[in-house]
Write a structure and sequence with these properties.
Layout: H1 3-8, H2 13-52, H3 60-83, H4 88-104, H5 113-127, H6 135-191, H7 198-225, H8 232-254, H9 265-293, H10 303-315, H11 324-348, H12 358-361, H13 372-376, H14 384-405, H15 412-422, H16 427-453, H17 460-474, H18 479-497, H19 505-522, H20 530-552, H21 563-586, H22 597-623, H23 630-649, H24 672-706
Length: 708
């Protein structure tokens, strides 16, 4: 076991990433200090810090490209800022340009987030430098900045290569933990006695949030695994990840028909027992994840104990024989257990299921290019990205100009940075950053005061680097920690550059509060409230659900690849996840712009119901095809697919069918053919309810548009 692997076993992925950044910055600092003393070391480490922003857990080729891009962009921003440092008007224009360009980079989506902040951080670091018009001084500073950026780029690339096996394990473990949390969230929701209480609504919100988190972690694991199919260990983890995705599908199917249990005390007892069983299943999955995190053999699954507990939950307190519905629910629970067992076997020796070919797996990897078409598509006034770019340019310029007029004008970069980190593309993130930034700054200032009182500031260089690594590690995990660490880093950086000027704690506090207030106020400038994006989001969700329906409701052909179906399934999950994020964002918007949350939650629930019905149909067609009457069922599949497509493409409630035949009750559906027909009817009903909820939301959004 290598040295890197030994000390990495105790760290999560973000901690491991933060530690490697810390070590890289330390090496750059030492080399800069050895070759050019303190001034050179600070310039070099500044270049390394802004270059490190896009250094996140990625495949080596992506790390090499993104970190190199960060180095070039950051260096260019730094050189321009220092060249304009004696011309306040030109520098204010540069601040506006950098702010707008950084915000426009979000046209390429969340993957551009770390890179988009590189030029701003480079600009902020350069503003801390004493203004100079001396060409030789600018050249020396640029040389050391480029040196630090280049050294860190090489370090990040090599470390990414060495740590790939560990990063893949941790990515899959995170996906397992998220799936376990989803199982527990679903179990908690199932155990609640009613669906219209505050507790039930809160549980529903948590369940929807866990769905989005799982999507994010699964995609992160895909990006690390699917490009490494020539590595045996990556093949094993890929197998396990695919089994986890199947387990998620089985969970959706297991949620069906629970309404048929009723709501009497016996039914409620069954629901609670099933909810606890799902929680136990989530705990078992967590144990598999913990083994991956510790590089230990996966623990055996308590299969028999879980099976007995499931049967006991459905049999009730008196242990009566299972009825038709109980037997169906038992079968679904056993499918969950089987998928969990396949996942465990994949980690140990392989699940026995053939993996899709590499070219198909690569279709699920996040695109790496930066097409100009994505940027061009945002160059219009109805673009939230363009509005945020203009808002950012104005807010950052105002912050810089105001900083020059304040009584404490020695660190204008602090006010600019506060606005840059707090002002986000939507109000929900801005409010969250505002609160975390202020509290984190207070904590960071207290830490620096404690260091000064105890005279530990003689270790300022070391503490500065520790703070930089900590800030990097927690930026997407817990921003409060990042804000505190960034405050320590900023105060110590200023102290290292001018030891006789003190630590500027009061100035830092004032700049943070003022910057947070500026960013908060600017977030109401040309706002793009969620109701404006609703038609695009719901149309995307309906198209994705229709595409998935078309793939599922066809008689399976074993000679054909199921790639189109798997792609359609991912697109449906992504589209519904985007709606879930919109629901979270609109909840903090002004009441005059807020979408009706109950209707939006209903749309999300019905979308998940349709997904679950389609998953149920898919499993029946895939696993029990030989027991079905093709001559009878294939026309029914085609007819229902057309009906669902009609529902999902409807523009008004009048376009929906006036009535649907009642689905066959579980106790009456005696044959497998009848059960599939029941599932098709329920899928059609769910599709119409999705369309109806969308129509209600559209009317509400139009009303908000008309509100003065």
């Amino acid at each position: 076991m290598s040295f890197l692997r030994r000390w990495s076993l105790a760290l999560p992925a973000h901690g491991l990433n933060g530690l490697t950044v810390l070590v890289g910055l330390g090496l750059v600092h030492l080399l800069g200090w050895a070759l050019g003393a303190n001034t050179a070391a600070l310039a070099a480490v500044s270049g390394a810090i802004f270059t490190s922003l896009p250094d996140t857990p990625l495949a080596p080729a992506r790390t090499r490209l993104r970190v190199a891009t960060g180095a070039v962009i950051g260096t260019l921003s730094s050189v321009l800022a220092l060249s304009c440092s004696t011309h306040p008007v030109a520098l204010a224009g540069l601040v506006a340009l950098v702010g707008a360009a950084s915000a426009m980079a979000m046209a390429w989506g969340p993957r551009a987030g770390p890179l988009s902040f590189v030029p701003i951080l480079a600009l902020v670091f350069t503003l801390a430098h004493a203004p100079t018009a001396d060409g030789s001084e600018i050249a020396r500073h640029t040389l050391w900045t480029v040196t630090g950026a280049a050294l860190y780029w090489f370090w990040a690339w090599q470390v990414s290569r060495r740590l790939q096996p560990r990063l893949r394990e941790l990515a899959v473990a995170s996906a397992f933990h998220s799936l376990g949390a989803l199982l527990r969230a679903r179990g908690h929701l199932l155990a609640l006695p009613a669906t219209d209480t505050a507790d039930a609504q809160s549980a529903l919100a948590h369940w929807i949030t866990h769905q989005a988190t799982l999507d994010e972690h699964i995609q992160a694991a895909r990006d690390l695994l699917f490009e490494a199919q020539d590595v045996p260990a990556a093949l094993r983890l890929t197998d396990a990840l695919l089994q986890a995705i199947e387990l998620r599908d089985a969970l959706m199917v297991s949620e069906l028909d629970l309404g048929a249990l009723g709501h009497d005390p016996a039914a409620q007892h069954t629901r609670q027992a099933l909810g606890q069983w799902l929680g136990a299943l989530g705990d078992a999955l967590d144990h598999q994840a913990q083994a991956l995190e510790g590089a230990a053999p996966p623990p055996p699954l308590p299969q028999q104990a879980l099976h007995n507990r499931l049967r006991g939950s459905l049999a009730g307190e008196d242990g009566q024989a299972l009825n038709r519905l109980g037997q169906i629910l038992l079968d679904r629970g056993e499918h969950l257990l089987q998928d969990l067992d396949n996942l465990h076997n994949a980690l140990v020796q392989g699940s026995g299921q053939p993996l899709p070919p590499r070219h198909e797996l690569l279709r699920f990897v996040t695109p790496e290019g930066w097409p100009w078409a994505s940027l061009a598509s945002q160059l219009h006034w109805r673009s939230p990205v363009l509005r945020h770019a203009l808002r950012s340019a104005l807010a950052l310029t105002a912050a810089y100009s105001l900083a020059l007029w304040l009584p404490w004008a020695s660190h204008p970069n602090w006010l600019v940075l506060s606005v840059a980190v707090v002002l986000r593309g939507n109000l929900e993130q801005t409010l969250s950053r505002r609160d975390a930034r202020i509290l984190g700054t207070v904590l960071g200032c207290l830490l620096v005061l404690a260091l000064a009182i105890t005279h530990i500031t003689v270790l300022s260089d070391v503490i500065f680097l520790l703070a930089a690594g900590t800030a990097h590690a927690f930026v997407n995990r817990r921003y409060l920690v990042t804000a505190a660490a960034a405050t320590v880093m900023a105060l110590l950086q200023a102290h290292l550059m001018a030891p006789d000027s003190g630590f500027g704690v009061s100035e830092r506090l004032g700049d943070t509060v003022l910057g947070a207030a500026l960013a908060w106020g600017a977030s109401y400038l040309w706002p793009w409230w969620e109701y404006r994006s609703l038609p695009m989001l719901t149309a995307r969700a309906r198209r994705a659900l229709a595409a998935l329906t078309a793939q599922v409701l066809r008689w399976p052909d074993p000679t054909q690849s199921d790639l189109p179906l798997r792609l359609a399934r991912r697109q449906a999950y992504d589209a519904i996840g985007a709606l879930a994020l919109a629901a979270r964002r609109t909840a903090v918007e002004p009441a005059s712009a807020q979408l009706p949350l109950r209707t939006l939650a209903g749309l999300l629930v019905q979308s998940h119901v349709l997904l679950a019905q389609l998953s149920g149909v898919r499993r029946l067609l895939s696993h029990r095809q030989t027991e079905l009457d093709r001559a009878r069922l294939e026309p029914a599949l085609q007819a229902r697919a057309a009906e669902i497509a009609q529902c999902l493409s409807s523009r008004h409630d009048e376009d929906l069918p006036a009535a649907w035949p009642a689905p066959i009750e579980p106790e009456v559906a005696g044959t497998l053919d009848e059960w599939l027909l029941r599932r098709l009817t329920l899928a059609s009903l769910a599709a119409c309810r999705v369309a109806h909820a969308d129509h209600e939301l559209t009317r509400a959004a139009h009303a908000l548009h008309r509100t003065p």
